[in-house]
Write a structure and sequence with these properties.
The protein is built from four helices and six strands, in the order E-H-E-E-E-E-H-E-H-H. It is an alpha+beta fold and about 190 residues long. The strands form three sheets. Strands 1-6 form a two-stranded antiparallel sheet. Helix 3 packs across helix 4. It is globular. The relative contact order is 0.20. The structure holds iron/sulfur cluster (2 copies). One iron/sulfur cluster (SF4) binds near residues 23, 25, 50, 59 and 134.
């Protein structure tokens, strides 16, 4: 058994009935994660996305969860308050079936990091920017297994290998390493 430690679990509760589809959450999330910060905004880079169908009054904010290399064999449809939601609508995964929750250029999976910042944000930015209070931030303390820090790096690499192939990723890493060594020697 691994070591247990106390961890603050951060969650965003979504009140679908209050969302009007304004997309402010997508804008601020993509701006916060731009490099440099706030230099651009592009909803395709946001870690929260709106499933929108104005004609059926469907506005569903979904924020990015884990990457999965496996596509679902079966999919669920949800009918809530008489509104039918698309099969992948409520899913938080970055997966091979769709482009959502993937960095548009690199195709690396995007995952909500609760706006990790230094100093920390008082609340995640999408919550702060949602003037309709459709996003509600909550924290609780839980005992969890010791985190494996390597996990996120491995997920990113796995996704790049899926997209570009092992040889291409290996060549790029080796080229970057050579360039870095050359730069270190000059200094
Ligand atoms: S900012 Fe709030 S109301 Fe606007 S789309 Fe996002 S969740 Fe919905
Ligand atoms: S909490 Fe931060 S990273 Fe997560 S979806 Fe909201 S703005 Fe994006």
């Amino acid at each position: 058994m691994g070591e247990k430690k106390k961890k603050i679990i951060k969650t965003i509760k979504i009140d679908v009935s209050k969302c009007n589809g304004c997309r402010a959450c997508e804008m601020i999330c993509s701006a916060f994660h731009a490099t440099p910060k706030y230099s651009s905004n592009n909803p395709a880079r946001s870690r929260i996305r709106l499933v929108r169908d104005p004609l059926r009054d469907i506005y569903l904010p979904v924020y990015a969860g884990e990457y999965t290399a496996a596509e679902c064999m079966g999919r669920d449809k949800y009918v809530i308050d008489g509104k039918e939601y698309e099969e992948c609508g409520l899913c938080r995964a970055s997966c091979p079936s769709r482009d959502v929750f993937k960095e548009p250029d690199s195709k690396l999976p995007l995952k909500c990091d609760m706006c990790e910042d230094d100093p920390p944000q008082e609340k995640p930015l999408c919550v702060q920017w949602c003037i309709n209070d459709a996003l509600i931030y909550e924290e609780r303390e839980e005992e969890v297994d010791e985190e494996v820090k390597q996990e996120d790096v491995e997920i990113g690499l796995e996704s790049m290998i899926d997209t570009y192939g092992w040889d291409s990723v290996l060549n790029t890493v080796s080229r970057l390493n050579t360039a870095r060594l050359a730069a270190t020697k000059k200094t």
